[in-house]
Design goal:
Elements lengths: L5 E5 L6 H12 L3 E3 H14 L8 H8 L3 E4 L2 E4 L2 E2 L7 H11 L2 H14 L4 E5 L2 H5 L5 E6 L2 H14 L6 H17 L12 E4 L5 H21 L2
Parallel strand pairs: 1-6, 1-7, 2-6, 7-8
Antiparallel strand pairs: 3-4, 4-5
Length: about 220
């Protein structure tokens, strides 16, 4: 498949997409596109300006002033490092409301596709169905809501956040509902995606399964040439 391969990894919140995608990208030697950070950055940006998740001219004007760039320092939001500000429990609770908006998704579509011109590993909700529909490798990473909430809870506690497990579980379930029910690019498994349940897998094990699938696809492609 070559170094220009695009690997699209979709799945619900807390399934381990970001960690696994980073590992796969490192093994393949291609960039990693953290689409979750993009949507978190937009949600943080709009919420900090008291702009609700409603499509109107106010939202249009705000999005036109938004600049998102990738650098060695990470994601830059209007020239400033986004950092941990976009990883708070508050942003967790609002990001799906903003990412459900067609205006927001359109704003990010070209940014994401531009990053994929030389190959990458991207994770999100609609990488294989909308953003990179022709990706040769599509993965749907999933896990039970309890396992996903537990992972997120431990991550937040490790960062010093004072959160309760039940609250984290409620946020996970709310995000699942919004992601599945939104009219614009709802979360769903692409028809040609391989599903991997990570309930009993470490990130390394899940990444290894994906890499094995990529190797099989490469061998099949060579056999048909």
């Amino acid at each position: 498949m070559g170094v220009s391969i695009i690997v699209a990894i979709d799945g619900p919140a807390g399934a381990g997409k970001s960690t696994v995608a980073r590992l796969v990208a490192q093994r393949l030697g291609v960039p990693y596109l953290d689409t979750g950070a993009l949507y978190r950055a937009i949600a943080f940006f709009l919420d900090s300006r008291n702009i609700p998740p409603v499509e109107n001219t106010v939202l249009t004007d705000a999005l036109s002033t938004l600049s998102i760039e990738f650098s060695d320092r990470g994601l830059l939001l209007n020239g400033e490092e986004a950092g941990s500000r976009i990883r708070s429990p508050h942003v967790d609770s609002i990001v799906s409301q903003y990412s459900a908006l067609p205006m927001v998704r359109r704003r990010l579509l070209s940014i994401q596709r531009d990053q994929g011109k030389k190959g990458l590993v991207a994770d999100g909700r609609d990488m294989g169905t909308v953003v990179f529909p022709d990706a040769p490798v599509k993965i749907f990473l999933t896990a039970s809501d309890a396992v996903r909430a537990r992972r997120r809870y431990l991550e937040l506690r490790a960062r010093g956040e004072n959160v309760a497990f039940d609250d984290v579980l409620d946020v996970i379930r709310q995000r699942d509902r919004i992601d599945a029910e939104r009219t614009s690019a709802p979360l769903k498994k692409a028809d040609d995606a391989v599903e991997i349940n990570t309930d009993g897998l470490t990130a390394e094990e899940a990444a290894r399964e994906i890499l094995m699938h990529i190797e099989r696809r490469a061998a099949e492609s060579e056999a048909h040439q």
